[in-house]
Each structure stands twice: as C-alpha cells, then as structure tokens.
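New to this. Help decode the following:
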Amino acid sequence: MKFIRTMAAVVGAASLVAACGGGGHDLGKELGLQDAEIHFVHAIPSGPTVDFLVNNTALQKGISYKNVTNFTNIGNGQTTVAYTATGTTTPLLASGAFPDVAKGHEYTVLALPGLTAPDIGLIDDPFDKGLLSNSARLRAFNASVNASNIDLYLVSAGTTDVSSVSPSMAGVSFKNAVPASGQDSIYVSGGTYQLIATQAGSKTPIFQSNSFDLQNNADWLVTSVPIAGALSQLLPNQIHLLVAQGGNTSQPALELTNTLNGQ
C-alpha cells in the first residue's frame, strides 16, 4: 500500500514539476490519488487478432501480436479481465481477475502462449516511484513455455560475459513477473545497455540483444516469448524479448533480436 505523502511534499514536488516543464513525473499516480490504469500486451507469436475485455466489456479491439494498448483508467475493486478472438465474445481465449484494483496502481494483462491453449498473465504494479526520481522502471515477465525459468541481465553495451555478474531479474518463471506482481518495479539509471538471458542459475547465454538506449523515466516491461515456429515445435530456449513501453501512446512492443544466432 502506498504511503500518504504530506501536503508540503505535494506543493514542493508540484513546484519542481512546473519549473522543469513536467520532468516525466505523474504526481497523481505517484501519490496514489489517480484512478488505476490498465493496459494489454499481445505476446503470442502468430496468435490471432484479439479484443481485450474488462468486466465483460471490450476495452480495446483488434489487437495483434506485439501490440501494446494505451493505459486506460478503470475503477477500483475486483476486476475481471479476458481476451477473445476479435469480433466475438465467446468462447474466451483466456480470462483472469484482479481481486482488489487500487488507485495509483498500473495493471498489465498479457496474452501468452500455453502448452495446449492460449493463456493469460497478470501484473499489479503499485508504482511506488519517488516524487523526485527520474530513474527508469523495469520489470520482466516470462511468456516462454519453452524456456520456463530464466535469468535476465541488464548490462552495459558490449558485455558478453556475465560469469561475475548477478542477474538483474533472477528466476523469471513461466507466467510470472520479476519483481513479482504486487511489488514495485526495479529502478535503474538511463543509459546504453543490452539484455542477456540465461537458464536460471546458468551463466551461458541463450539470448543476447543488440545495444539499446534506456531513457530516464522510461517504464519498461521486458517479456520473453518463443520465436516464430517454436509454439508448435517447442524448441528449448529459442526465445525473443519484447519490450513493452508504458505510457499513454499506443505503440508496438520493441522485439529484440538474438545476436547469438541471428534470429
């Protein structure tokens, strides 16, 4: 649960934001006063176009693989979520629920491949970012049934050896996030990085990305997904990483290529 900040902190932060032209801060969310927000990530390679339902009503329609919807305000309390093939309401491809949606939180729903049928992933992010912080926020989610437990390393560009490095997000198991749902994201400084994935506990990379820029105040969800074709063949550890960027502008997730094998 969020701490209640004092009015002095509110006034001071508001003055700072006004002086800096916004600075990437969202005071209502950071103070826990803004209505909860929810968005949807389509993470099923070669999956069908879907509609995203909240409390049995289509919130966004026609969502294809790699698409990430805008954050949309929703009410509080128990909230059911689901997705279905576009233009239909039954049968649902997958469904789930958040038992107690709260103000100031960000909620993410992911369509993900399962062993025998489409599945669903749920993340409750309390968004406990400090009022004056400009750090980037980062969380991992595993949507790879063929790589069911991985470690992710966010490392400086050019790094290829992680033998002496601790995972940034360790033990990311299938259908789960690290940090776990209900916990805040991790915070890192903006910079030029790359991502390396290994099997949990191993130091041998199964995925290594090109370098990319992570900006201050970014809000990233890094999701592992099977490569095209792996859904039917279930090739072990053949994955890509999708980067879903939070915000109020809908944009496709960035799909990072594995430089280890050019896939």
